[in-house]
Structure formats: structure tokens, C-alpha cells
């Protein structure tokens, strides 16, 4: 892991590229009156995507890495929501919206793929502190006491 490992992580690199694309192609199109509102919301959310992937990568334990990927995915959804609003308000053109929406979809697939990979590989499972992780089962989430537990 470490910085060298991060720079080889495809999902992080694409997240960085997505942030740059938003900065270069969307933010300049927003009106001046949105400088401290929509503009700042988009900036924070799009920066959060690669930042959370990086933070999770540095945690060395797959469950924490997955948790930060979920946060990154939430930030991606936030960016998309802001882009949809900007498009609806006429701040960005159909063409720009289509391009960044396509990139957003790609980013979502990459994050989901990375999460799936982490779940399969269970990297860091034997790291110090790993035995103290939260151990829950599907039964812990049953709302009905008469529902039989799920068997693996």
C-alpha cells in the first residue's frame, strides 16, 4: 500500500480525473451568484470522491476501506444530484451534462467493482486489530422475531 500503491489504484486515478473534468468543464459554466452555493457544494463533493478512496486505501483493512468507498460513492451521488440541478436550471448544456453523467456512471461502476474486489479479497483480514472488528450477521437486522435466520 502507501502512496505508490495509491497512484496505481485505477479507481483513485479515475476519481482524480473526474474531479478535474468537473473543475474544468462544469464549474466555469456556473453563474457568479452560485459561487458560494452550488459551486462550492460541487467542489467539496467531487473532491471527496478520490479523497475517501485514498483514505480508505490507507487504512489497510478491507472493511474500513469498503466503508470509505461507500462514502466516496455517496459523494458521487451528491455530485450527480448537483449536476442534475445545474442542468435543470440551464447552467450546463445538454452536451456537457451527457458527458459528465457518462463519467459519473463510469465512476460508479469502478467504485462498485472495487468494493466487490475488496469483499472478495478481504485484504488486511489478519492485520492487528482485525479480530476486534464488528461481527454481525443478517439475523442482527431482522425486524420480525419469527423470521428464520438466513443460512449461508
Question: How would you describe this protein?
Answer:
With 152 residues, the protein is mostly helical. It has a single domain, classed as 23S rRNA-intervening sequence (de novo design (two linked rop proteins), Up-down Bundle), CATH 1.20.1440. Helices cover 64% and strands 0% of the residues. The chain contains five helices and no strands. α2 runs antiparallel to α5. The longest helix is centred in the C-terminal third of the chain and has 28 residues. The radius of gyration is 19 Å and the shape is elongated. The two termini are 32 Å apart. The model has no long low-confidence stretch (mean pLDDT 84).
Q: Helical proportion?
A: 55-70%
Q: Regarding CATH, which class?
A: Mainly Alpha
Biggest sheet, in brief? none
- Average per-residue pLDDT, rounded, comes to 84
Number of strands: 0
Unreliable stretches covering 5 or more consecutive residues: none
How does CATH name the architecture? Answer: Up-down Bundle
Structural class assignment: mainly alpha
| Tally of individual helices | 5
State the shape.
Answer: elongated
So, the CATH homologous superfamily?
Answer: 23S rRNA-intervening sequence
Distance between the termini: 32 Å
Q: Please state the CA-atom Rg, rounded to the nearest Å.
A: 19 Å
Beta-strand content: under 5%
CATH topology: de novo design (two linked rop proteins)
Amino acid at each position: 500500500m502507501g502512496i505508490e500503491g495509491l497512484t496505481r489504484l485505477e479507481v483513485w486515478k479515475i476519481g482524480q480525473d473526474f474531479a478535474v473534468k468537473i473543475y474544468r468543464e462544469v464549474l466555469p459554466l456556473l453563474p457568479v451568484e452560485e459561487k458560494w452555493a452550488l459551486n462550492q457544494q460541487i467542489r467539496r463533493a467531487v473532491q471527496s470522491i478520490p479523497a475517501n478512496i485514498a483514505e480508505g486505501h490507507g487504512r489497510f483493512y478491507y472493511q474500513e476501506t469498503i466503508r470509505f468507498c461507500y462514502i466516496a460513492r455517496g459523494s458521487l451521488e451528491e455530485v450527480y444530484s448537483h449536476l442534475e440541478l445545474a442542468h435543470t436550471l440551464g447552467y450546463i448544456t445538454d452536451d456537457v451534462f451527457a458527458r459528465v453523467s457518462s463519467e459519473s456512471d463510469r465512476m460508479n461502476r469502478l467504485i462498485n467493482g472495487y468494493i466487490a474486489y475488496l469483499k472478495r479479497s478481504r485484504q488486511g483480514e489478519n492485520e492487528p486489530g482485525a479480530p476486534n472488528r464488528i461481527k454481525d450477521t443478517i439475523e442482527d437486522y431482522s425486524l420480525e422475531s419469527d423470521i428464520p435466520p438466513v443460512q449461508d
